[in-house]
């Protein structure tokens, strides 16, 4: 699944990735994802945008 993130409150070396509970469009080629940690209940958002691939050197 796209847009996986980890909870800053529960972050450890083996923290599982958290899937967003909601993904909302935020302009062309961008979204805002809302997360809720299944362990501690913390809620946070993260903005994601499409990026052009860097040409190989």
Content-based structural category: mainly beta
Q: Report the order of strands and helices.
A: EEE
Q: Can you tell me the number of structural domains?
A: 1
Strand order of the largest sheet: 1-2-3
The dominant shape is: flat
Rounded mean pLDDT is 88
- First-residue to last-residue Cα separation: 30 Å
Annotation, overall tally of beta strands: 3
Oligomer category: single chain
- Share in helix: under 10%
Determine the strand fraction and express it as a percent band: 25-35%
Count of individual helical segments? 0
Regions with little confidence, pLDDT below 50 for 5+ residues: none
Radius of gyration: 14 Å
Major beta sheet, specifics? 3 strands, antiparallel
Your description of this structure?
The structure is a single chain. By secondary structure, this protein is mainly β. The chain has one domain (1-8, 15-50). The protein is built from no helices and three strands. It has strands spanning 22-25, 30-36, 43-49. Strands 1-2-3 form a three-stranded antiparallel β-sheet, with no helix packed on it. The protein is flat and about 40 Å long. It starts with 21 loop residues before the first strand and ends in an 8-residue tail after the last strand. 9% of the residues are buried.
């Amino acid at each position: 699944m796209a847009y996986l993130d980890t909870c800053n409150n529960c972050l450890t070396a083996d923290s599982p990735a958290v899937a967003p509970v909601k993904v909302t469009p935020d302009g062309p080629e961008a979204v805002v994802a809302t997360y809720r940690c299944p362990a501690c209940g913390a809620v946070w958002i993260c903005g994601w945008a499409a990026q052009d691939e860097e040409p190989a050197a």
